[in-house]
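Run log, item B.
One chain of 281 residues. Sequence copied directly from the ordering sheet:
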Amino acid sequence: MKGYRVYSQIQQLKEKGFKRAAAARQLGINRRTVERYWDMELEAYESNADRIRRINQLDEYEETILLWLKDYPTMSAAQVCDWLKEHYEADFSERTVCRYVKNLREKYHLKKEENPRDYAAVPELPMGKQMQVDFGEKWMKNTEGNRVKVYAAVFVLSHSRYKYVQMQSRPYTTTDLVLACHACFRFMGGMPQELVFDQDSIVCVSENCGDIIHTYEFEKLRQECKFSVYMCRAADPESKGQVENAVKYVKYNFLENRIYLDVNAGLFLTPPCSILLRRSH
């Protein structure tokens, strides 16, 4: 006997005055099953049963998930959840997938290799006040097994954490950054009052007694769009920790374990056999 029928019969015997051991003998089930359901409210039972059903539904993908975990030891449960949604349009919560992946790792003794990540608290800012911008690079393997480097420009609105990412297969120039900014503003539907950057050579030429000298193309963009610019030190989590964590997500979650095809055409291959499209130049 399984599921709701067992739960219902246990509750009926409890109402009739049966003890737990007697209820177990009457139903021919393990006493621990009676113990689990004895004091459980119906609402709690339904919630628990729904969670179990979702986990059991993941068994359909067990072989595929095991293949991913064995081939990519750094793979996180969050990335497994992303890939299930990308390839199979599977509607599982990240928490459910996390439990399932944890059980698989324990069952098959699959140890996860960690990517070190640093996090820092950043004070909240008003809506529309600030956008943080940073760049990331990621070595990937192509279909021939060779290494290819992908370059990403990452934008994060400081208040909402709304994100925009643009990738290309060559290092960013000032012209590329200007085009990416325009594309980001169109995607966001507006512009912030302030952009935060590292003191990158494609943004500023030099610093003169505290005054930042911007590159010609970027200064033209700044004057046209009327936003202010704050330049901070590289890897400064107090100034732009939000975008640094977003860059790490792109490098160690989104791009991690994918196979490079052609970023300029927006193509990445995610094992085992699906194509993922992303905006790029």
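Observations after the first pass:
- The CA atoms of residues 264 and 281 lie 5 Å apart.
- Residues 1-40 form one domain.
Flagged for discussion on Thursday.
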